[in-house]
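stage 2 :: seqdesign
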């Protein structure tokens, strides 16, 4: 055993990426060219790829000129590296133009992940990509021959700041989000898979959308699901899957020796209503790809799905058979509904409170407020919840809205004990009927007018967001903050380049939410009302002159002032719900 450990330690590598965040012009749907946030003057963004035990280093330089940036590594739990998680205002400051911040962490769990900007509403502008951690001990290693990544997403012709400005208007009384203009597969319109007879393929399906879920179905081939969100599952057949924003599925597709020709598959954007029982309500955004076994034949034919009836994500079972935590020490109940703030602007609320960003990043407050850091008042209205080290925490989300919302927890893979069907209503308060060997995920899609019950072990000190992964809803404030084991966060130190990013922006790095170091329990100066003027990632300082791309982008934004987002016609059938 010692020898094995030694051998693995010896091969652990450091994988380094030197990245500039840059604007580039792209036309991924073939209908509209626009600036997108790329890496090193290219887009789609590159893949991060490493092996379990490796150290990943990303040196990220902001060369955007007119926006701040940052990166989150979605699904990695950042054990002992809680300051590398990436969300702006939480574990770091936004990175201003012409600054570099280094992310350094060990990838300790194999699986399919992704990275994305967690800096205001920036990732729908393109800053997102796959993050693959290969396993040295893959239980399914002998079951497949090749790997294929499929990235699915919605896409918008508006840039994100314009889209959010249009959304957060008092006239938007229906809380309508930006409506996608296109469905992208692999950040474009082409994702055929070369399929060789006799081979089995491991598909790594990742949804990087800002809003839409995606349905997927393969004609003539059954998906054998082996992993969700970087957590192995007992192999299970699925005819259709729904992958919500930020979720991932790994599944096997077998090109049997009897197969020949080319087989279509269908990816369809899902409007997030549970229309499994309502065939009339859908977006006309479908993509047909092909499993290509015979190049000489043309790619024709479509995969027709009469009715979407995807696998129930709560019914998969963890591969290791780990039992559900049998009880809990701390209950956090979050009733989610849309709401209006004091100024009549549409927001999204947990327990009638919307998340309001504060001056000091929350982790920095936890590290610098001493014994007061167990007092939630120190953190301001970031919807803070304190949990103690080693607590088994149960989070209940009641989704009072009539649409599906995918909720993501940073820093953990949680157990999904219950995620009942649409229309089930709120949690009864009784802990019964739960899964015994539940799947573990980092993102759970909660059904319309229903709820979910999840549990995790608070063994990872840090400040971890819990939020809807519809990016538009994050910008409306649908976020809570788990402050985990604050007694173990006291006097944490932070890398100088992270602190430098703050000082360049004039952001304090110590004290309570308002930067008060003398009396952290003094709440004066904290933000208590969300700003009415949305600026998102926009940088108005004079750190650099604008590039041609940013000038064009600014000109376009200035020529189209904010206007209420029209409610799309298809939604007139029912009360709009997002
Ligand atoms: Cu949402």
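stage 2 :: out
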């Amino acid at each position: 055993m010692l020898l094995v450990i030694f051998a693995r330690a010896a091969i652990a590598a450091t994988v380094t990426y030197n990245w500039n965040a840059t604007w580039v012009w792209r036309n991924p749907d073939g209908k509209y060219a626009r600036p997108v946030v790329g890496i090193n003057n290219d887009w789609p963004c590159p893949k991060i790829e490493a092996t379990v035990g490796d150290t990943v280093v990303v040196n990220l330089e902001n060369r955007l000129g007119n926006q701040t940036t940052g990166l989150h590594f979605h699904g990695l739990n950042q054990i002992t590296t809680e300051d590398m998680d990436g969300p702006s205002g939480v574990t770091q400051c936004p990175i201003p133009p012409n600054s570099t911040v280094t992310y350094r962490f060990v990838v300790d769990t194999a699986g399919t992940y992704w990275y994305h900007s967690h800096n205001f509403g920036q990732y729908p502008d393109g800053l997102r990509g796959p993050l693959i951690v290969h396993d040295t001990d893959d239980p399914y290693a002998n079951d497949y021959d090749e790997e294929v990544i499929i990235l699915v997403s919605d896409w918008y012709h508006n840039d994100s700041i314009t889209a959010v400005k249009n959304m957060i208007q008092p006239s938007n009384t229906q809380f309508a989000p930006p409506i996608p203009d296109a469905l992208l597969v692999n950040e474009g319109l082409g994702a055929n898979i070369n399929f060789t007879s006799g081979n089995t393929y491991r598909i790594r399906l990742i949804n990087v959308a800002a809003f839409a879920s995606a349905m997927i179905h393969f004609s003539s081939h059954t998906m054998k699901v082996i992993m969700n969100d970087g957590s192995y599952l007992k192999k299970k057949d699925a005819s259709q899957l729904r992958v919500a924003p930020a979720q991932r599925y790994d599944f096997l597709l077998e090109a049997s020796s009897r197969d020949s020709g080319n087989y279509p598959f269908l990816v369809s954007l899902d409007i997030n209503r549970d229309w499994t029982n309502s065939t009339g309500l859908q977006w006309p955004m479908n993509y047909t790809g092909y499993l290509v076994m015979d190049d000489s034949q043309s790619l024709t034919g479509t995969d027709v799905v009469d009715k979407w009836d995807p696998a129930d994500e709560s019914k998969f079972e963890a591969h290791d058979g780990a039992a559900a935590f049998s009880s809990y020490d701390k209950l956090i109940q979050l009733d989610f509904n849309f709401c209006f703030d004091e100024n009549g602007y549409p927001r999204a609320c947990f327990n009638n409170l919307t998340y309001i960003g504060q001056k000091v990043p929350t982790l920095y407050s936890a590290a610098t407020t001493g014994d007061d850091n167990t007092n939630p008042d120190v953190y301001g209205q970031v919807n803070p919840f304190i949990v103690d080290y080693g607590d088994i925490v149960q989070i209940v989300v009641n989704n009072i809205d009539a649409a599906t919302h995918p909720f993501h927890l940073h820093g953990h893979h949680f157990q999904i004990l219950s995620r009942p069907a649409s229309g089930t209503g709120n949690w009864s308060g009784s802990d019964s009927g739960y899964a015994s060997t539940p799947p573990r995920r980092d993102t759970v899609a909660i059904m319309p007018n229903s709820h979910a019950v999840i549990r995790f072990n608070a063994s990872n000190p840090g400040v971890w967001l819990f939020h809807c992964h519809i990016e538009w809803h994050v910008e409306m404030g649908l976020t809570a903050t788990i402050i985990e084991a604050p007694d173990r966060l006291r006097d944490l130190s932070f890398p100088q380049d992270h602190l430098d990013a703050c000082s360049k922006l004039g952001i304090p790095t110590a004290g309570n939410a308002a930067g008060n170091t003398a009396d952290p329990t003094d709440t004066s100066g904290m933000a208590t009302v969300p700003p009415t003027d949305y600026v998102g990632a926009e940088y108005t300082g004079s750190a650099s002159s604008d590039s041609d791309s940013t000038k064009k982008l600014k000109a376009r934004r200035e020529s189209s002032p904010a206007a209420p987002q029209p409610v799309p016609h298809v939604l007139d059938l029912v009360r709009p719900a997002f």
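stage 3 :: structure notes
- The chain has three domains: 1-136, 140-318, 330-505.
- The helical segments are 2-11, 160-167, 362-368, 471-475, 496-505, 548-559.
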